[in-house]
Design brief:
single chain; 248 residues; seven-stranded mixed β-sheet; three-stranded antiparallel β-sheet; 4 helices; 17% helix; binds 2-acetamido-2-deoxy-beta-D-glucopyranose; signal; WAK_GUB; non-specific serine/threonine protein kinase; glycoprotein; polysaccharide binding
Length: 248
Amino acid sequence: MKSQYLLLKLLIMIIIKTSLSDSDGLYGTCNGTFSCGNISGLGYPFRRHQAPAYCGYPGFELNCDQQGPPTIEIMNMTYRILSINSTFQILKIVRQDMNESICPKNLVNTTINHKLFDYAPSYMNASLLLGCPLSFNVLGIGSIFCGNNGVGPTFLVPGIQGPGICNTSVIVPFPIGFTNTSGFINTTGSEQILQEGFDVMWKVNGKNCTDCMRTGGQCMYDNVTRLTICSSPSGMQLMSLSYLWTNP
Ligand SMILES: *[C@@H]1O[C@H](CO)[C@@H](O)[C@H](O)[C@H]1NC(C)=O
Ligand SMILES: *[C@@H]1O[C@H](CO)[C@@H](O)[C@H](O)[C@H]1NC(C)=O
Ligand SMILES: *[C@@H]1O[C@H](CO)[C@@H](O)[C@H](O)[C@H]1NC(C)=O
Ligand SMILES: *[C@@H]1O[C@H](CO)[C@@H](O)[C@H](O)[C@H]1NC(C)=O
Ligand SMILES: *[C@@H]1O[C@H](CO)[C@@H](O)[C@H](O)[C@H]1NC(C)=O
Ligand SMILES: *[C@@H]1O[C@H](CO)[C@@H](O)[C@H](O)[C@H]1NC(C)=O
Ligand SMILES: *[C@@H]1O[C@H](CO)[C@@H](O)[C@H](O)[C@H]1NC(C)=O
Ligand SMILES: *[C@@H]1O[C@H](CO)[C@@H](O)[C@H](O)[C@H]1NC(C)=O
Ligand SMILES: *[C@@H]1O[C@H](CO)[C@@H](O)[C@H](O)[C@H]1NC(C)=O
Ligand SMILES: *[C@@H]1O[C@H](CO)[C@@H](O)[C@H](O)[C@H]1NC(C)=O
Ligand SMILES: *[C@@H]1O[C@H](CO)[C@@H](O)[C@H](O)[C@H]1NC(C)=O
Ligand SMILES: *[C@@H]1O[C@H](CO)[C@@H](O)[C@H](O)[C@H]1NC(C)=O
């Protein structure tokens, strides 16, 4: 058991060593930290989408071309990034298609890539029911104003709900703690809360990159081994195997 594991470790090290020789000479070709839109101090796993692919982990490409918040694409949906907490690996994001009204322009459910992200534990699922008949309001929860986009009255209810008698249901993460004892979401203020976005935690371990940078190195992604490596002026260095194993 133990010796098998050791052999596996050895094999992986050999594979990495051979593939790394291809990527030698890349040191210094990625920016250690960079600013994107109104957010500064960004680094691996993030990269500007124009930067070489090896500068970031796949799925963490940022669009910094516009003023204000940077954007990221997750599962084919564009999100504005409102803040990044690198220490705790938390991103606050909001759907780009909710930038003008909390009633989304794209009638698709919010889904994140669970290989890379997880919802922060302080969030739950809620459903926006769009295009409901007025009779829906028997619940007395009050409708949300969707502007003049012709979808009809919209309601926000907790949990994953199908459209039922309404035209469409769109699932959105919503902070826990805004439901009353009967389990209804208080409509007052919920529009602003939706506009403030939600927190996701990224799973790719970035802590080691701080260590890597401290020793004068730079984290890079090796697309052959699909692992993060620490590149330094003296050449490539293996991150500790514990780190390699935690990579998705
Ligand atoms: C590094 O940063 C500079 C200045 O912000 C930018 O012009 C350049 O494109 C960046 N390079 C990479 C590889 O991100
Ligand atoms: C992403 O969206 C584009 C255009 O909106 C579509 O062509 C493509 O099939 C979508 N990809 C996935 C994986 O849903
Ligand atoms: C960036 O701008 C957006 C919108 O203008 C704002 O909501 C967000 O708080 C800003 N982020 C930072 C880190 O300043
Ligand atoms: C990052 O998140 C943690 C935990 O939520 C919080 O205590 C800390 O103040 C945050 N740091 C920044 C810079 O926002
Ligand atoms: C909202 O996003 C769309 C598409 O990205 C953009 O065309 C529009 O100008 C944005 N509106 C605001 C108020 O930022
Ligand atoms: C919403 O439900 C889905 C499917 O049950 C789950 O994977 C996801 O984590 C939930 N979202 C939140 C914010 O709890
Ligand atoms: C629901 O959708 C149908 C077909 O698009 C539309 O005719 C109807 O007005 C919508 N109902 C509401 C309440 O918006
Ligand atoms: C919870 O909220 C709903 C909708 O606003 C309301 O009808 C109901 O009476 C509330 N229940 C309690 C226990 O406050
Ligand atoms: C969102 O998910 C719910 C539950 O799975 C489903 O009933 C609904 O049709 C989905 N909405 C859209 C726009 O696909
Ligand atoms: C809804 O929230 C508002 C503001 O937080 C509060 O004043 C009001 O009493 C709440 N309504 C109910 C029914 O809980
Ligand atoms: C790996 O990256 C190099 C340089 O960026 C590129 O030329 C090569 O096609 C990539 N290989 C794979 C398997 O994606
Ligand atoms: C990477 O991080 C893990 C835990 O976060 C730590 O145990 C390990 O020693 C680190 N490896 C390196 C090379 O810094």
